[in-house]
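Researcher: Final request for today, and then I'll write up notes for the group meeting. The sequence and the SMILES for NAP follow.
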Amino acid sequence: MSLNKKTKKWLEKNCNVSFNGKTVLITGANSGIGFKASELMAYLGANVIMACRNIKKAQAAKANLLRDYPKALIDIMSLDISDTSSIGAFVEDLKSGNVDVDIFLNNAGIFRKPGQTTKDGFELVMGTNYLGSYYLTEMVLPYLEGLAHEVIYINTISIIHKIGTVDYSDFFYRKHYNSFAVYARSKLCLAKYTYYISQRNKDSHVHILMSHPGIAITPLGTEAFGKVVGHLATVLGGLFNSPEKSALSLPYIIANEPPAGSISGPRGFLNGWGYPAVNKVRRNVKTGGRELCTFSSKQIENALRTKHQ
Ligand SMILES: NC(=O)c1ccc[n+]([C@@H]2O[C@H](COP(=O)([O-])OP(=O)(O)OC[C@H]3O[C@@H](n4cnc5c(N)ncnc54)[C@H](OP(=O)(O)O)[C@@H]3O)[C@@H](O)[C@H]2O)c1
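Model: Predicted protein-NAP complex:
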């Protein structure tokens, strides 16, 4: 572990703000980009809360971080973003612990899970990346708005949102399942929703933004495609962003405070590679957010009603 020299130099040059005393909560912090974002925060002196669904994995990740940053303050919270009950319990934990949060990075996400559903009965990728993130955001924002200081709230999208489409007649791809299309839709919906609420909440002291990691080799891809991609990743890994470089969007946002609703991510070719910058928000992200919110709240309402019958 430990950060590479180029990362440290980039941080020195581009993140000239104090992270001391800041608390950064990261969902899906035990692996890939979320883990590297946690490491960057520990290196910069922030307190870190790792919100993870698997506490054993979270404890192992925390122990890894503490080996390199023994003075870091790192807490673990339990959160499964695909499960409305877990999200409810997580928000209660925030409230009962009066947990202070300055920056909230919702990074957790999945890629290719054909034939699987969430506990609430939604197709797993849409139910995690979009509906889970939607419900988490709706549940957490009132708590963050009650804090007496500025807060940055970030949802993690993907460049694949650019090829996503929204079709309410088959929102969960029940008819023709295609892993890329489902993933792209889940991230496009998350982008539309996040942009919509960022504008709705413009006058609030909770600033809502988006980040994306470009293309980085992490368990997200290697687990989805099995050994072949795993081996290819070992050979071709250098061609992609490292998870460490992709995680730099978080300190970039904290240091540069880009406008509400903006997307920060790699600035290189197709926004897949390179150091972070503010990317262009496409027109299809700026539209349809209100309709999507109405649709999503009905989906969740129905699921909760069925669950409690
Ligand atoms: N890697 C890329 O090139 C790329 C590109 C575009 C966007 N992204 C996005 O970047 C984010 C991080 O991905 P990654 O590449 O770092 O993948 P990763 O290494 O697989 O990490 C994903 C993290 O999310 C957690 N997670 C998954 N489902 C969860 C749930 N229901 N509740 C709570 N945590 C959950 C995982 O926990 P477990 O360890 O318990 O599974 C893991 O900690 C995702 O939102 C992904 O869609 C990645």
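Model: The longest strand covers residues 47-52. Strands lie at 23-27, 47-52, 74-78, 103-106, 151-156, 206-211, 263-266, 276-279.
Researcher: Thanks, that's everything.
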